[in-house]
Amino acid sequence: MPDNKSKQDERAEKLFDDIVYRGHKVAPIESHKKLSQSNRKGGGAGGEGSEGEMAESYIRVLRLLLPGALAKLSTLEDPRNKNMCDHSMPALIVYGLILFLAHTPSRRAANRDIGGEHAHEMIKQAIPELDTIPHADTLARLLEKIDADRFESCYENTIIEFIKSKTFLRLNPGRCLIAIDGTQKFSRRYSFDKRALVSHKGDEERERHYVYVLESVLILENGMVLPLFTEFLENEDGFLGDDEKKQDCELKAFTRLTEKIKKYIGKGRVTLACDGLYACGPVVSRCKAFGWEYMIALKRGSLKTVWEDYDGLRKIETGNTLQYITDEDRRQTFNWSNQIEYTYGKNNKRVHLNIVTCKEEWVEMHLRSGKAPEHKTCGYAWLSSSAVSAGNVVSLCNDIARKRWRIENHFHVEKYQGYSYSHCFSYDWDAMRAFHSLMKFAHFLNTLVLSSEITYGYVKDQGARWFIRKVWCVLIYRGLIGQDTEWIAQGGKRRGCIYRDIRLRAA
After folding, report:
1. How far apart are CA 178 and CA 290, in angstroms?
2. Where are the domains of the chain?
3. How far apart are CA 198 and CA 211, in angstroms?
4. Which of 71, 87, 91, 504 could lock 9 by a disulfide, CB 3.0 to 4.6 Å apart?
5. Distance between CA atoms of residues 426 and 416, nearest Å
6. Pairing mode, if any, of strands 225-232 and 321-325?
7. pTM across the whole model
8. Do the beta carbons of residue 474 and residue 51 sit within 8 Å?
9. How far is residue 377's CA from residue 397's CA, in Å, rounded to a whole number?
């Protein structure tokens, strides 16, 4: 017979699945331009009433999602001696989620901000057995003992279930557009772990030990960007020097990451958008073997023989051109050539490449400075998996290839807008990876909460970062939790009001 706690976890997880995978209508991205902040008096702060309403709307949705997310993360076995622990594993995990949900920059800041009585009351509604707020170091010690791979798989399974859900298919009826790029997490002048990468640029005194991560994000047709899979670049046996052993690199991590994408999402359903590093024969062959479409940025210095063939074909294929005017009054001139043969590798493997270039021209108006209008141009080039024609060139370039910049925006949000991507939180390698997984899960939850009907108006008016900052300021320092909160400790039995509260704006 399952006990009451197991039944509560089962109900909470089912509630999470119903909301995320079957009950969501996600808000559209209405403009490509960044919304300007309100210029009215008090427009950036609001009164206590408006702040209270924002906090109520945010916590109403979060209370529905948090227990289910916790149930998914708590499937791992607790590696500690339970007789010597003051806090349960679920209590520590929900504490870690709230640390990133509230945009807390460090463990020390978590002890200062989340360790208060008001935050304790809020967390205790989700975890009734939480008698005291844990210390952030206690969470770090737990994550040091947990298998980082299994901890990461908890979020991976959640996002894959979302991709397979009716909600995702309604929001994204076509292929899965996935952008892949690498970024540095943080660096130090000293060796903090043998698995960290090493760079000295020819000068041993400038040696740096750093963590580099290959990330993938899921770009939905309505503009949402969700974190997908992560691959850490690691030196398995430590760095032995340039002459003795090569370090892990982004292309090796790309092979591991694409194996994971193929395993969970499958063949023939993926479209990749990548930068110029991946414009090479092995990457193209791998995508073709998996049946994936791709748009890969191509630089002039890469694949020189292909560029020579393309320049020669441009003199012959004069009909492969198209001019297009965008909604921003930018003139785009597209040129392309298909089936250019390229040979690579020791075995002289052959692939056929499709190349498309775009020259963009526009007039920059300097209305504020009063300067004269300035004529500007820029150029782009991509490798395309599909044969380019006048009928699909605009869609391939503007709707797929140009969306690769959204992973750069994603990095900017996680690094500089609250999620402390560049902070290690722990020098233990496994704990650092576990903190990273908690950050991704919290970002996923915040994205869902901020896209709901009852919060979207506030977010659209003031911006996501300001909204979260104000909400958690109210929740932590003023203790505004709300009127109807007792039912969350019972696994969310009151399901009748869920779809009125959680329904998200339709795309």
Report:
1. 14
2. 4-28+48-148+428-502
3. 9
4. 71
5. 19
6. unpaired
7. 0.84
8. yes
9. 17
